[in-house]
Fold:
Amino acid sequence: METQIGIRGDNFVVLLSDKIVAQSIVKMKHNQDKMKQLNKNNVMSVTGEAGDVDSFSEYIEANIKLFGLRQNRPLTTSECAYWTRGTLAEALRSRSPYNVNLLIGGFNPNTKKSSLYRIDYLSSICEVPFAAHGYTSYFAYSLMDKEYRKDLTKEEAIKLAIRCVKQLDHRFLVGQPGFILRVIDEEGIHTYDSQPILENGQRSFNFVNVANNVVVSEA
Amino acid sequence: MSITQYNGSAIVAMTGKNCVVIGCDKRLGQQALTVDMNFEKVFRVKDKLYVGLPGLATDVQTLHDRIRYRVNMYDLEEERAIQPDNLAHMISNMLYQKRFGPYFCEPIIAGLTEKDEPYIMGMDLIGCLSSAPDFIVGGTASDNLYGMCEALWEPDLGPDDLFRSASQALLNAVDRDAMSGWGAVVHVITPEKTETYHLQGRQD
Amino acid sequence: MVPANRRGFHFDNCKRNELLESKGSITAKFTKTGTTIVGLIYKDGVILGADTRATEGPIVADKNCEKLHRLTENMYCAGAGTAADTEYTTNMIASKLELHRLNTNRQPRVVTAASMLSQHLFQYQGHIGANLILGGYDINGPQLISVMPHGSTDKLPYMTLGSGMLAAMAVFETKWKPNMERDDAIALVTEAVSAGIFNDLGSGSNVDVVVITKDRTDYLRNHSKPNQRVPKQTSYKYPPGSVSVIRKEVRYHSNANQSPAAVVPEVVMSES
Structure:
């Protein structure tokens, strides 16, 4: 039921997730940020079982920060992703497995390249141009398959994410009222919040940069 | 559905005259949903030694990590290059240790021995070794691969002929398997060099 | 990371596999030997016989596998059941027997091997799926003992085991007699295994035989090959250019068999 999308361009990554915390059929919270900033250049978005999401992502976040302090350099995206996979795989074989699906996206300031990793709850990892988890994937993958290009610009990638969200809102039984979108590029991490709009009687979303109120819309 | 069919895979290894070929498909799925079309399942261990890991993707990756660790330790402790049969028994042991809680992966080893003789070996998920003079197959398309290889394999094929026979066996097998496909990678191992071919495959 | 030198069976995957099974996935098949294995006592010793087919469900996984395992110079063991279990159990007992031989400076006895096998299998309460026929010659003469997965043993003059045991036993019950001559006994073992090969779907291919007497052991690998494949009448070679290649990389090998080796791959674009 949770939404999680990632799109990788040449020198940026776009991550998007919904904001709902639900228990059974009840929405408990409408403004939950499901992403963790692992360091200056890397973001991890997490969905899954409620308790697992928090304890696992906090553990990963803290440890990656600790690594960064000890080594005196931030971990790269692939280092973050593979260490996370290893931790999840080990936990899976213990008495307390974590039921979490992850997307890890980031920018490498040394190579000037971005990368996006998709890790599922069985801890299979793959580096991909675009990714989604859960029910969302059935709606978003077809759209991303069709529209994705290697030379996508930041604005185009955000617009593609908006189209995915619009499609979900239109076709998915379980509607989601809001989303958080993050762009990770050379300058760092930019956060956008969703703003629902009405477009010829149909709902769509604009994304507003939290820092400077710049609006990105689909059109 | 069996857990070995969760992600989908197809691997084939074939022997020829002074050469071996090992190839795999590139799909990673979650049941019917395709997640990645660039997921290789054959890994280089040494110059003339490759291992193919068909099965559950998480175990493929965990096993690959552990094989790499054990082979590096072997290098440091023994100070000589590991041979294909050594590697086969090493992996077999790793799998049998987990006899009662196995990794869902059936490794296939392909390489050239010290004397540059072709070597292929397969095993089941708890490490029962099985050798064959001709070919070893594995993954969700293994039934199809058995059929293709029985028809296409013949003794003493040179590297070029062997490459084509193995590639055609693989491509045609995955075309009749819904869980694997989306292109293929084939490694042709000869005494002088290893050629890696990325093949065009159906995208459906 | 799991330390490489931790001994014995590991159970770290069990919890996870339980989880996977609870989500409705079926755990995978193991390679089984399917199998017809037989053994008999004749005038000068004991003979074991086996077919050479290994199966994985309905698929023939290995057309010429070895089911006669060497324990010591004077003892062999024919195995049926889960192939990995027969292989690893007999290997482990073989190592123990060799150490026993070196420690005691005596030829190991068949009952020693039988006790070791039976105790090991009993310890694992039938979870190790090894059905074994143990044959050997020691100071007590020729002996034939069967060991079942739960650890029970039988001592008989002739026996058969595996999915083809009924077919093979039919032959033994008709033709076995005490104190047979060597050639007749080998022929009878071959006939019994062949009955399994041709009448049982789990058994097939060739007949392996081992003859153990007081002072020598003859391992007759592929003693009878009743299912030789005829040469192919047509070649199905594909013509050059029939495989479309997107990308080709070449990696030249460094000086043969030296351990550090990494040559930067040369990338070639081609359409073969």
